[in-house]
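for the recovery benchmark. tokens below, seq after
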């Protein structure tokens, strides 16, 4: 009977330890517990070690800078949604050099060329994967042209994959859905890119992009909020070479006029451009309507109309 008794006592001790860990530190009763690099559970307030000899899931080596960390790492790049195979397959380097950095012979170069060609062929097993590869490469190309960060490319790739899974691609062009996914990702991540800017780098017409975007946003329930004109202000002011004072004044104009309900139904880029034009006049850093219109990619008529409305709302004559 000694065996079961010891087993019960051991289980009671384990339960007591777990309860102490869940409630917090037994010394200072703090719940701020941290996992140290040596696999120990430590109280962040008093420094008491609650548990030790945990499994350390980090590497067994130490590195003190980025280069040393890259050299010692024995794993590949993290998985990414921007590649059709999520970056899990191998890829043959384009450099015709051996492991020591020396040039290889012409016979080996020819062999490596054939290997690269077959490697690209076998990475896609069917037409569906080839279409996905083409769509993701289009997203990457347009994202590079727009200068958006890596996170937007990841979100755009996820949106396209969701649209493909829900069979929303049928009857629509791959380029149109890919461009719409990128535009939706820009809005979702708060990166101000207008539909005109996206259409400039796309291979489909703006009307098709807008129609496909509305369809995808509705079917996938993306729930995107209307674009705030303030998001365009820093980029437009930077391209126009305006000061921080003009940028701050522009924000004030947009906030005051938006509170009066003037923003409803207006183009955010045109509204931001008119506010910048008005702020530049008020701060004696005058820019012509043509200069502002070229940066914002709107017409001078739009700037004049929005400018008059904003000036009247502010009570400036």
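predicted aa per position
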């Amino acid at each position: 009977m000694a065996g079961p008794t010891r087993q019960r006592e051991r289980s009671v001790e384990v339960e007591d330890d777990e309860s102490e860990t869940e409630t917090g530190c037994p010394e200072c009763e703090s719940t701020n517990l941290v996992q140290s690099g040596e696999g120990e559970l430590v109280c962040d307030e008093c420094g008491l070690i609650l548990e030790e000899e945990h499994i350390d899931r980090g590497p067994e080596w130490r590195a003190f800078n980025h280069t040393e960390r890259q050299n010692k790492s024995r794993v590949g790049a993290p998985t990414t949604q921007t590649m059709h195979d999520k970056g899990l397959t191998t890829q043959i380097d384009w450099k015709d050099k051996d492991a020591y950095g020396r040039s290889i012979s012409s016979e080996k170069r020819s062999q490596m060329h054939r290997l690269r060609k077959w490697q690209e062929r076998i990475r896609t097993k069917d037409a569906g994967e080839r279409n996905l590869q083409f769509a993701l490469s289009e997203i990457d190309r347009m994202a590079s042209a727009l200068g958006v960060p890596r996170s937007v490319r990841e979100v755009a790739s996820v949106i396209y994959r969701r649209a493909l899974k829900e069979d929303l691609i049928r009857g629509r062009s791959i380029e149109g859905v890919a461009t719409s996914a990128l535009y939706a990702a820009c809005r979702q991540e708060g990166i101000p890119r207008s539909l005109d800017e996206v259409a400039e780098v796309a291979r489909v017409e703006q009307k098709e992009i807008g129609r496909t975007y509305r369809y995808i946003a509705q079917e996938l329930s993306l729930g995107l909020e209307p674009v705030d004109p303030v998001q365009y202000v820093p980029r437009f002011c930077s391209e126009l070479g305006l000061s921080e004072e003009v940028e701050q004044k522009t924000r004030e104009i947009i906030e005051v006029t938006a509170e009066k309900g003037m923003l409803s139904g207006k183009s955010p880029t045109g509204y931001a451009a008119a506010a910048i034009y008005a702020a530049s006049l008020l701060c004696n850093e005058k820019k012509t309507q043509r200069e502002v219109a070229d940066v914002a990619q709107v017409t001078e008529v739009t700037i004049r109309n929005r400018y008059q409305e904003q000036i009247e709302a502010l009570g400036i004559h």
